[in-house]
Amino acid sequence: MGVMPLIIMCSVLVAGLFLTLFVRVTRQGQYDDITTPAIRIVFDDERLPSSGKD
Amino acid sequence: MEDLLHQQYSENGPREVVSYDNAIVKMFAIATLGWGLIGFLVGLIVAIKLYIPEFLGGIDVLGYGRLRPLHTNAVIFAFAGNAIFVGVYYSLQRLCKARMYSDLLSKLHFWGWQIIIVTAAITLPLGITSSKEYAELEWPIDIAITLVWVVFGWNMIGTIMRRKERHMYVAIWFYLATFLTVALLHVVNSLALPVHFLKSYSMYAGVQDALVQWWYGHNAVAFFLTTPFLGIMYYFIPKASGRPVFSYRLSIIHFWALIFLYIWAGPHHLLYTALPDWAQSLGVVFSFMLIAPSWGGMVNGLLTLRGAWDKVRVDPVLKFFVVGITAYGMSTFEGPMMSLKNINALTHYTDYIIAHVHLGALLWNGGLTFAMLYYIIPRIYRTKLHSTSLANWHFWLMTLGVIVYVIPLYWGGIMQSLMWRQFQPDGTLQYNNFLETVTQIIPMYVMRSIGGTLYLIGACVGVWNLYKTAKSGSLLANEEVYVVNMMKSDVKNEHPKESWHRVLEGRPVRFSVYALIAVIIGGVVEFIPTALVQSNIPTIATVTPYTPLELEGRDIYIREGCYTCHSQMIRPFRSETSRYGDYSKPGEFIYDRPFQWGSKRTGPDLHREGGKRPNAWHWKHMEDPRSTSPNSIMPGYPWLYTTKLDTKHTEGKILTLQKLGVPYPQGYASRAVSDLQDQAKLVASGVEEGGITNVQADQEIIAVIAYLQRLGTDIKKSPSSTSMK
Q: Which of B44, B277, B509, B624 has the greatest count of CB atoms below 10 A from its CB?
């Protein structure tokens, strides 16, 4: 089963990458506010008059 | 409320104008629908072939084993793939308040992906395949996929870098995970050594190949058919219902938990096989834990509609979403259950799995895709949906179609599995003839194709409705909107504590991608050679490499897609050893590149087929299966009797395998063709002994018979005799 280390290494790599990302973005304050992001996306952007309003 | 929010934004900085690219969204949407119809139609054709085996029969490029991979690839990579890109290109721009990073990359991505699909649609019916499920495409196409995928990731990450919104909404995380993980899976699983432009042998052999393949296969479901669609769910459900997601906190937990658990679940595809026990158990544990984040996500999606259920009654977009998410919940309940060993023993290799994946593909992926298109198309065409009642028709045809599809197959799968393991009081198998268990479930096969037809009709109605919608409006190719750039420094000062990482600010993703690529290259270089050498040390003395004729026969077996219906993996159950013979040992597969364990037994397992029946039986059976096995649903392979075996590449194949560590004697390649011809004469005379006339030793069928007669026989040989000189 020589290939097990490869697969485990790749899996750990992916997991480790995401863990690093998670810690980093949490420290950056990505998840400080978990109320407004959900609300903000519900609003549509205001189109320029030239783009037509539907 | 909108005015209030707008005022707040304006206090933070001046408004800017951003132009969203809707044209690329339109292109991917058209591709989704077009390829979708083709993928569904091919699926219907192969479904009909299961009970009318000679439907479109006798034509090599339309054989079941060649069309089935075309169906799966078309639905996964062409239909769902393009749908993912529709969702990403539409929602990412709006979430980042930025146009896609580069119009050129968008176009390269679109056309590159479509060209790959076209080459797949040409090569798979021609039998050019690696036979690794959902990764069948040969190495030049694999390289093209890698390049186009990098273009997609580059474009997506570039857009995220340029975002004008500080917070990355949860959907973006799902998209990022999709990109990163699929890239890794695809590269690792596709490693192969080419013989020539259209043929390669897997870097891994036997058990190792199986493990890598299902690590890929399961994660393809996770990171191609699940995470991007969850991103789509988290963006489009709030948009379509006008309500924020039920719990944003839950969505974050959902994301991180899901990606950490999914990566480990692959071995549940290989329970009771030659895979080490601890690896199987690891897969089971993680698969079972997956139910928590999966259901968390489902509940979060459905509860977003709390208080808005009245809208679900009237809005087709929400109807499709609700049914899609419900199907996701059902599939992700079934998944962990089927990864339990005792349930897996019952459902594996049966049509239960086919029902399970179609519940996911047709309702979860299909339902969400159509919901998303019904949402997007009227908006980018500045019009209203052509007909709500047609959309309702589509909805019911889809939902009823799937019910008519899956329930008979669930039933048939369990019934057949129970028949396989039914013993008589005297200890012999009650249904000793495999065919008896097949003919029992043919009514279910008929029902499933009716369900599939309903689904296809529904999809046609949907395509027509969307076409009429587009016709009634005009495309807003570049949608110009006002945004406030929240990434500007004066806005950033809201978070004064983050000065220490100014340099890394805005670059975490890019940085991580570079690190990932670096480590993978290092890891691959370090591990692959050792893995390969070790895997070639025979642990069973009598197991020897395939002879050139058997190797060519095996490559024809792969070309015709025999593995789509026949497994080569006998599990250690009494019902299987009584039916097929001794259970399969890991050491028997060390020369199998790629492995041919299969995942479905529409026909019987073939691992111990060698020596069971005379050559002449195989000759008659492959030409017309019903001549030897009345009521068989196997198609005939008449072209194997009229095509001469191509030995042009035999020498190259032996050389390639030698490079991979297969112990053919030094210089054997030059003798390979003459050895092949000698063995072919022997096999042909064996066929003639059975009373067949007009046998020519250079026909393809001779090589196939040689391979079938070799299967699983090595273990029965005495240690002194070996087939190689």
A: B509
